Amino acid sequence: MKVLMIGAGGVGEAISVISRGKPWLEQLVLADFNLSRAREVQARLGDPGRFPAIWVDARDQQQIEELARQYQPDLIMNATDPRFNVQIFEAAYNYGCMYMDMAMTLSELHPEEPHARTGVKLGDYQFERAHLWEKKGNLSILGLGVEPGLSDIFARYAQDHLFDEIEEIGIRDGANLTVEGYDFAPTFSIWTTIE
């Protein structure tokens, strides 16, 4: 499998390191706005041919589509901040490959009555396009970050294989996280945390 991964930060690096030894991985392109970061991850992986490091502006859907045509991925892996999801999601759709992200498209306030009416809810943008992806025969996996994505998989596994009965599973996202020396230190995008 060939993967074009947009984002070589902490999550992108973890994905790369985990994928490195897998026989199914033919190539994983490390694309990031911070090219030195992509090269740092590439150096850790030790195989520049299999893990090329390139510059990308995740805001530029056209550029992502051009990279897809150049590298011909089976999957575009979105390991960026969710504010770039629309462009990357649409680039994968237009190119015609699978897509995966950690957090779905963000919500938007109602344009006229933001305190009285619901605008666009979290993930609505992508879910409303599910029929288009199905018609094209492509798979998109949304929101498969640690919570709710991966934790949902763990919960289902526990239900199917570990317990006869489950009353409740609670997920606490950074509930008591502290970073010494800081009163407030989110571990990832503050906007994702707020969302």
Structure characterization notes:
By secondary structure, the protein is of the alpha/beta class. It is built from eight helices and six strands, in the order βαβαβαβαβααβαα. A six-stranded parallel β-sheet has the order 3-2-1-4-5-6, with helices on both faces. The longest helix is centred in the last third of the chain and has 17 residues, at 146-162. The radius of gyration is 18 Å and the shape is globular. The chain starts with a strand and ends with a helix. The mean pLDDT is 89.
**Cross-sheet strand order for the largest sheet:** 3-2-1-4-5-6
The percentage helix is 25-40%
Strand residue percentage:
5-15%
Major β-sheet profile: 6 strands, parallel
Low-confidence stretches: none
> Helical region count?
8
Distance between the termini: 33 Å
Quick structural summary:
With 195 residues, the protein is α/β, with parallel strands linked by helices.
Feature tags:
single chain, 195 residues, alpha/beta, 6-stranded parallel sheet, 8 helices, globular
Secondary-structure blueprint of this entry?
Layout: E1 2-6, H1 10-20, E2 27-32, H2 35-45, E3 53-55, H3 61-71, E4 75-78, H4 85-95, E5 98-101, H5 124-127, H6 130-136, E6 140-141, H7 146-162, H8 190-194
Parallel strand pairs: 1-2, 1-4, 2-3, 4-5, 5-6
Helix pairs in contact: 3-4
